[in-house]
Each structure stands twice: as structure tokens, then as C-alpha cells.
């Protein structure tokens, strides 16, 4: 089956593409590096030919609510419009646990995307996931400063990216289902502790300083606003197990 992967060069997108190939499917990568601007309708129209499904794991590098909302509404609208014209049967979008309730910063973009998809008549599936194990290393790279490592004060329940990729593909091969059961990691964690584990694994001895994120987003991160509810489907691999394999 030919399946388009919007954001197929990103951290999760690459895993989705690899797993699709392993399963014998034909992934079509939609990304700027491949020549596809998801926010430009005319650019998107050149793609999606003969695709049976779209897996959207694209993202925007921003913390601005307005920028994130503009990106996700434009890209989603374009993918849905072109997809329906091309005969796409299922548009699977990856969202974030807690985004709809927090609706701030980057999460405001995901919340807007969810609202857009939920008012459409069929053809869409939304999977909300918690943060990925890979998210820890990305934040370390962004927040490090010499011998000092800042770590956001947050509670999270991270999941292995490969498990998210597998779940997205499983959904893409089925009929559209709307909003489905949330997906989360097997264990609640504190981000500073995950930073410490990651740095130790790399042989680094940086001093970790816990920093509260300001605003509504920071309050949600500290108070469990991005943790899954009791009905979430849980992955298997803990952060410690994932780290040992890196």
C-alpha cells in the first residue's frame, strides 16, 4: 500500500517510514527537503497520487501559539483537501496528550488541528500520544550551556518512538476512526531525572538545574497536565530500557 508520511524526515516520521518499508508498504515522504511545502496548497497538489492513507507527523519549530495554529490549520487543510480529491481513505494525525486542555504555545496548534479534524465528516483518525523517549535528548541539546544543564520541571510518561510509529501504521491500515484511545509510556517520570540518566549514559557529569517553565504551559507541565488518564493504552518500553539500547 502507498502511504504518504507528512513530516517523514522528522524524529517520528523517520521511524514511520522505516517501519512501513519493513512491512512491505510504499512510504511517500512529504517534507520541505523532499520539495513539499505542506502550508502551500499548490505544492501539496503535486503529491498524494495513488496514496490510500496519510500519516501526518509534521510539526513546526515554534513556541508561538499563533504561529503553531497557522501552521497546523494550513497544513491540515491542504492535506485533507488534496487527499480527498486523490481518494485518500484515512488521514491519521498524531496529536499530544493534554494539548486540547492546555491550548497554549505549541499545544495551541495541535488543539486547533484536532478541532479541525473532528468537525470533518469521516476520513480522519486522531491519535494522542505522550512525549517520546527521544524528546529527552532533543531538550538536552537545546537547553545545555557548558557544564550546566537546565532541565524543565515537568512530569511526563514518555513512550518509545517506535511504539508510536507502529500504532500510527496500524491505524492507517484500518478505516478512519475519529479520536481513538490515547497512547502513553508505561511509567510516569520526572524530566530532571531523565536528563540525569541520559547524561550519565553519555559519560557527562553536567550540573542539572531544574527550571520551572512560565505561564499556563509550565503550570500544566508541573501539575500533570500532560499525563495520560487511566483509559490510555500503555506502551511497553521504559525510558531506562530504551536508553540502554542507544
Automatic annotation (TrEMBL):
Span of domain NAD-dependent epimerase/dehydratase: 3-95
UniProt xrefs under InterPro entries: ComplexI_NDUFA9_subunit, Epimerase_deHydtase, NAD(P)-bd_dom_sf
Gene3D superfamilies given in the database record: NAD(P)-binding Rossmann-like Domain
Molecular functions (GO terms): protein-containing complex binding
Superkingdom in the source lineage: Bacteria
PANTHER family: NADH DEHYDROGENASE [UBIQUINONE] 1 ALPHA SUBCOMPLEX SUBUNIT 9, MITOCHONDRIAL, NADH-UBIQUINONE OXIDOREDUCTASE 39 KDA SUBUNIT-RELATED
UniProt protein name: NAD-dependent epimerase/dehydratase family protein
